[in-house]
Design a protein that fits this description.
The complex is a heterodimer of chains A (about 240) and B (about 210). With about 240 residues, chain A is an alpha+beta fold. Chain A is built from 5 helices and 13 strands. Chain A has one domain. Classes of the chains: A alpha+beta (about 240), B alpha+beta (about 210).
Amino acid sequence: MSEMVRSIDYSTELESGSHWSLKLRRGSVMRLSDLGGDANVGMLFYNSENLLERYNAPDTLKCQHTFKLSRGNCLYSDMGRIFASIVDDSLGWHETVSGNSHAEHVEATWGARDYQNDHNRWKQNGHDAFLVELAKYGLGPADLAANLNWFSKVGVSEEGTMQLDTSARDEGHHVTLRFEMDTLVLLHTCPHPLDKSPDYPQSKVRIELGQAAPIAKDDYCMHYRPENERGFQNNDLYHIGLGV
Amino acid sequence: MLITSKLEAENAICRETVDAGDYYIGIVKAGETFRILDLEGNQAADTLFFNANNPTERYSAVDTIREQGNVYLTTGSQLRSNENNIMLEIVADTCGRHDTLGGACATESNTVRYDLDKRCMHACRDSWMLAIAENPEYGVSKRDISHNINFFMNVPITPEGGLTFEDGISAPGKYVELRATMDVIVLISNCPQLNNPCNGYNPTPVEYLVWSAA
């Protein structure tokens, strides 16, 4: 376990094609593990105090001059604040530009979603999974931003061609997030939209929740880039305003 | 792909110059074509599109690049919505490559990218906020303001996973032209950014032109 994690207090496993949401306080950690080797976890963040503030993929990428996300990277809102930082990562490349599978992608690749026959093995798609979770908070399609796709590496050629690179996939890969402000987390375990595996992926995902160690002066994520130091200062200002 | 247009400016039904730091908002009907012309070169036009009949349906960068399998936009790119429907198609382009990953500048992200003291410098997202506040008849709110296109901006992605803002590849007189496949609200912020080379540190005007359906 990373020295940046103080405790793991809860553990659960989600089947593929599932969705979930929960509010995580500042100082919480969430560790995701791919238990089968072909998982994808779609994720979105919202400020639970102001749902109009949400995860912003372009700001996250350009603020850190990166296309891929891994240990050290921070995940920014549209208000210049950091929802979460990546404190541990065994894979080295997660993506945030491919969006979600839609019903028509899943149907074209693996057949239609069919609860009547398949029950909870139905072939859920990421877009609809997010719409379900959004609606629970009074949110809708307008609130659906470009999401994260954990455990999915999408590379880009010199000419701009995108490709899902499955070569590094393996059972046991894990990534750990530390939340830097109170955050509503929406997630699904539906297949990546560029996944063309012969069968609908079946990997379970373990989700562990716990508490982070206090942030040290030499914190890896805070100092990973000078921009992140300023992002943490924006969070400090936000918490001064909240009086916490 | 570099494709020039056969449309003549004198036949346009709308011609408007948008200064740097200003916005344009208006509707283009299905079948109509519009052009954004980089008058002095190296400018960035931060642009959003909404279905004029249901603004909850809007341009989606992720759906657009995933369906075309390429992160850059040029002639032939079909611009998709968050419902994965085709909203517009790029029909002419004399610049060759446009960005849709870098997003728009904001006063808040400027503090992160450059300096905490840059908080009050003008930015694209503030132009959009003013546009939706001054034009409520379009039915667009902050919830609808999302991940845009940066016409004329050069944001190369490297095979190693890097992303950089490079000097623009546009030049005076270069343009991009799009044909609408549904009635769309066009919302442009002509970028006021003074801190990076996306517009050569010198924001300049663009011209917006619309032609009737052929």
